[in-house]
Each structure stands twice: as structure tokens, then as C-alpha cells.
Amino acid sequence: MKHVLFLMLACCMATTSYGQNIIEWRKDKVTQIIFPAEIVKCRTGYIAGPSDNFDALTQSDGKVLYIQPVMPLDETNLNVVTSDGYYYAFNLVYNEAAKCVNYIIQPAMAFYHDVTVQTNVPEASDPDVSDADVAAADESVLPDSTSLFAKVSKQGAYIVTNNVAKLQKLIFVLKGVYVDRTHIFFKFSIQNSSNVPFDIDYIAFSITAKKTKKTSSQERLQILPVGADVDIHTVGAKSICDVIYCFEKFTIGKDKVLLAEVLEQGGDRNIGLRISENFIIEARKL
After folding, report:
1. Which DSSP category does 271 fall into?
2. pLDDT digits over 214-243, tens only?
3. What are the angstrom distances between the C-alpha of 149 and each of 18, 34, 240, 242?
């Protein structure tokens, strides 16, 4: 049963950091955020309605949170706790031209897990459940991320065709896709051959239709990485930066692509790379 959350204005506003999850929202569309477990608590940096003088409508329905600002708002924050003991934090960024309004949240995106909360993890004594299945159930956050990223970094750049986007002396390259039992890694290179430093606002990933004559925001589903090996703020003039992004394992249909977009801060050099489903299906095993 749907219920409206009456929320207090948060005392502290979270500052933007490259390690924090970013969600864009706009006043003319509802943003839908789907969590892996039911929402039990929500706190915001804005006045949530319906109430007197509210800034944005906020409504929960089980695992789904709906938010919509009634006016352009400054960057603010959203904190959510789910029934499986995971704590999530997001930066909300107003963008009247936001293309993605649907977000799927993964457990590895949480900043904290209360292990005392009971969850439906398979018992090892169950004869129908293997030890590997139990280990997979426990692996809800990215394990030993430093060694995993180092392992990916050592892999050669094996993708050589249909993997490059170019714009105004910027080159965005997918060098390889790698997978283990629970995660998939994308290895990118961003080259700036101009004399103007390329300041990065953020890098966004979304699943969209392969053929996009007039793709609406409803036809794009943004997915958020669970980690990166480095935080890229700027690609200097005449320089190259490599970065590896990790996601919980996923696949896409033959009629879809993964769109990786790098948006420039204070500029219009926004470059996008369309990644075929073949690269994902044929990811190399770590």
C-alpha cells in the first residue's frame, strides 16, 4: 500500500564528492528510484511534501521511491535505509534537461551495511544450496576492490574496433570489458589533444535503444557504478587518463546499447560512447 513520507529538513547539507552517487531530477518528470529491498527510512536535504511550503514531492511504495521537485533546487542530498540493513547516500542535482529519470540501485552502492539486520541469506546446511551460492549471497559489496582493479589494469587493451568516440580533439575509448562471478569492469581511456584542459562534471552510464531517432527519457535507464579505480576531475591539455569502472554484473538485449557519457564542467564538450551488447556478452574472464 502506498504511503506518503512526511520528512523533516535535514540539518546538514552534503557536499558534492566524486565518490558519492549522483541522481539528476527535474520538475516536469517523476524520478523513480528502485532499491533491492523495501525502504524503511528516508531523510532529505529538502522539505518533502505534501506539506506546507514543500520543495519536492516524495513518496515510497515498497522498494520504490518517487521524487519530483516543484521548482529548480540547489544541489541537495538524499539518504535511504532499506530493510536489509543497507544505508545509501545520494547527491540530488537539478537538471531541467535530465535524460534519465529511472534508477536501479544495487547493494554495492551502499556506504554502510548493518550486519546485525536479518536477511534472507541461504543456509549452508541446506542440501539444495552449494557453498558457492552461500558465498555469492554474502558478496553484496565489492570485495577486495584494490586487488581487483589492479588485476583489470594489468589486462591488455583487446577491443580495437567500434570502441571510439571523438569530439573536438577529445577521444573516448573503451579498451576492454572484464568479468568475474559477481562484477563487470569497463576499462576506458580519455585523451585530450587540445590546449584546453577538459574539466569533468561527471561520467554517466545508461542503457538505451540501439536505434535512437527520438529516444525519450523513459526509454533510457541509468545505471550507477559501484566503484572506480580513480576519481577523474580533469584531463589536462595534451594528456591521457585511464579509468576503470565496476558494476554489479548485468547484460543488455541485442536491441540496446550501454551509453557512457562524459560531461564537461563549464563547457559543451560532452562526449558519448555507445557500447554494443557484444562487448558485454564477450567480456573476458578475470
Report:
1. E
2. 544 446 677 888 888 888 889 999 999 999
3. 18, 27, 19, 12
| Per-residue pLDDT tens over the stretch 163-215 | 999 999 999 999 999 999 889 999 999 999 999 999 988 788 888 888 755 54
Contact (Cβ atoms closer than 8 angstroms) between residue 198 and residue 211: no
User: What letter does residue 107 receive in the DSSP assignment?
Assistant: G
Check: pTM over 0.90? Answer yes or no.
Answer: no
Neighbours of 195 (CB within 10 A): 8
Distance (Å, whole) CA 32 – CA 57: 12
**227 - beta bridge partners?**
246
How far apart CA 157 and CA 248 sit, in angstroms, is: 21
227-228/239-248 β-pairing: antiparallel
Task: State how far the Cα of 58 lies from the Cα of 48, in Å rounded to an integer.
Answer: 6
The backbone region for 168, taken as left when phi is positive above 0, alpha when psi lies in -120 to 50, beta otherwise, is left
Q: Which uninterrupted H or E stretch holds 151?
A: helix 145-153
- The whole-angstrom separation of Cα 48 and Cα 92 is 13
Give me 160's grid cell.
580495437
Strand partners, 284: 178
pLDDT tens-digit map of 180-192 = 988 999 999 999 9
> Would you give the end-to-end CA distance of the chain in angstroms?
44
* Widest CA span in the chain: 64
Contact 105, 248 (CB under 8 A): no
In residues, how long is the chain? 286
pLDDT at 117 over 70: yes
User: 238, 192 in Cβ contact below 8 A?
Assistant: yes
Quick one: pLDDT band at residue 111, thresholds 50, 70, 90? confident
